[in-house]
Amino acid sequence: MKKFLKTVKVIFTVLFLAYTIVILYFLFFSPKEERFIIAENKQGVYLSQSMFNILTFQHPDFSDTYFEQSVSFNKRGDFSKGFQLLNKAVEIDPKLHLGYRGWIRLRKMRDFDKALIDFNRLDSLTTNFVDAPWGEDIDFLRGECYFGNNDYQKAIDFFNRSVNNQKEDWADIQTFVYLGICEYELGNYEKAVSEFKRALNQSENTCEAHFGLAKTYQEMGNLEKAKEHILKAEENIGYKRNDIYNEFLNEIYLSEILEFKQQLNK
Amino acid sequence: MNLFLLISFLLALSLTTWIYYQTTNRVGDIVFDKSIDNATFKTCYDYKTPQYYQVGTNYQDGSKAIKKELSDTIENLTFEDSGYITFRFIINCNGEVGRFRVKTINSDLQENNFNNQKIKILQKSIESLKKWNPGMWKDKAFDSYFVLNFKVEKGKITDIF
């Protein structure tokens, strides 16, 4: 009986130790890429943050870790912590992370001046190459920054550069919408009509372009055309530009369209 | 032998407890705190509250509508610094809001202290908003976390998003 009890104790001791060793090995000594992927997939969970802390301690120059660790803080509105980490990633590998930081500054924080600084610096580091921070053309993003700052002429310059980079048929359809809004804001109504129509050439369902045309035609005194386009804007609102994370600078809502329609019908 | 067994058991137990804590807590979770939270605000579910972007929580007509509704409050508030005031809170499955937490930073993104009384006014103004669309998943309404930023430039609120 004594021997049996001793054997049971040995087995349990070995099992408990093996369990502890396996977990500690996984956390501290498994390949860094594997740990990174697991931590990345568990975004926001404390375990993920602890794994990133271990990785940055062991591999202080692994910039992706700081970048990925920053994401859950910035998404949850803790920009102070998020940017401490993201700034570290940029410091280690600016070419890799400047675009994302600029993109976050533009889309999540609407800090247009600092976003421009990041995009311009990235551009200067990658001459002869058109960057695409977070998958979007850098000149389109710079155009949005100037648009956000109400500097419509500069915005037009960068949106036009974006069309040149991407070519007419491949440019983001919202480039033409922004160009139309900028011309409208500058009082260049003929040009605004022409830019909004470029968007409609890509897709007839671009409700932002129809809404822009309705406003522009109203300014030009062509109420018939304005009414035609406000109806099309209403019909196509289901195709509007939106994003589950953030509101875009040129995002429109059905209520605005209906309000404008009512105003036109008075 | 008993000592080895005890030590190995305690090690395994501590590690398991740590892993349980680490996998059941998330960045930005807000636990009810009776000293600051309104006890009448209830969440509809006990399980982990998702983020707004996981279930599509939003305000009717977006932050443009929020800006319009809060324009009077915003106009009358001035601050001594530039930066961001970020509210994180829960929108329950009925579109009610509660469990507010706030972080304030200056334009260099360093934590700062905007006037607490004015922050309370802003929180009250968010509580007065009535057109929240709770997060939905498969036709079912959910509680969710939401984030609302007030951008302050030269002492004035210039944007809400």
Summarize the model shown:
Chain A has 14 helices and no strands. By secondary structure, chain A is mainly α.
Structural commentary:
The complex is a heterodimer of chains A (266) and B (161). Chain A is 74% helix and 0% strand. Chain A has 266 residues and is mostly helical. Chain A has a domain of 95 residues: Alpha Horseshoe (Serine Threonine Protein Phosphatase 5, Tetratricopeptide repeat), CATH 1.25.40. In chain A, helix 3 runs antiparallel to helix 4. The relative contact order of chain A is 0.05. With 161 residues, chain B is α+β, with helices and mostly antiparallel strands. In chain B, the strands form three sheets. In chain B, strands 3-2-7-8 form a four-stranded antiparallel sheet. A two-stranded antiparallel sheet of chain B has the order 1-4. Chain B has a two-stranded antiparallel sheet with strand order 5-6. In chain B, a hairpin with a 2-residue loop joins strand 5 and strand 6. The longest helix of chain B is centred in the N-terminal third of the chain and has 23 residues.
Describe the structure using short key phrases:
heterodimer, A: mainly alpha, Serine Threonine Protein Phosphatase 5, Tetratricopeptide repeat, 14 helices, B: 161 residues, four-stranded antiparallel β-sheet, 8 strands, 33% helix, globular
